[in-house]
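Record type: monomer structure entry
Structure origin: computed from sequence
Chain ID: A
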Amino acid sequence: MKTKQIIFRTMLVIATSGLVLTGCRKEKQEDSDTSGSTDNAMAEATFNDVANISDEAGISGSLSNYKNGNQDMGGILSSSCATIGLQNANTSNQDTLTIDFGTANCLCADQRYRRGKVIVYFTGLYKDSASTHTVTFNNYFVDDNQVLGTKTVTNKGHVTNGKLTFDISVNGQIVLANNAGTITWTSTRKRVWTNGESTWNWNDDTYAISGSANGTDRTGKTFTATITNDLIRNMALGCRRHFTAGSFDFTPQGKAVRTVDFGTGACDNIATVTINGKTYTVYMK
């Protein structure tokens, strides 16, 4: 009996020690999860992509000039992918522009596959102070990820150091391909047109974006994101797909703040994510 008790106590000590050691290992596990921050960046890029399309639509206010401008300036759209229709309002100042990529995937000028419709309701030209552009979607997919929700862009005039400024709000979702989950994203942004306003050439345009966002990542966990240094969008060919500079703080549910940094101007898909003082390199899709 004594022997059995000693054996039992020894086993209990070993088992308890194992639990303690296991607990210590878990506490010391490195937090290197960057997936939520890349989901936020994907949402940011997707809805900026939509803004680029609507910007092309509103820049001239003329259907023929708009389409020719796309082809000449290397915009997102191409004649082989998109059919563009303009409906002028009869009883109000709001017009409707429908950009139809068709029902099958089409490879666009920015090397992304699109299908479905982007619908832009707009009042006034893109450069007109107080004009608004509201973007919605009808079975719209980018690289087989479905984009849902609304985006509203309001022209505030030349209120930021003499630069044209836009207030932007998004309430959207991205349903990821292959049942990979759904990203929800709500944001409030200010976008300043820092270069290129005086020309018709898209390639010399740059924008500085500030503001905050919140939502859920593909696993359903909540997050917040706050831009700490203006995110820079360079519209030159080869640059416009991702931010080229700037940073934001990303706080996922139950985890430490991640600082996401897009660098200082290089046209690439590389960003860094810093967690608890350790920096990881990520590649944007």
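Annotation 1: The helical segments are 2-28, 35-58, 63-73.
Annotation 2: The longest strand covers residues 145-160.
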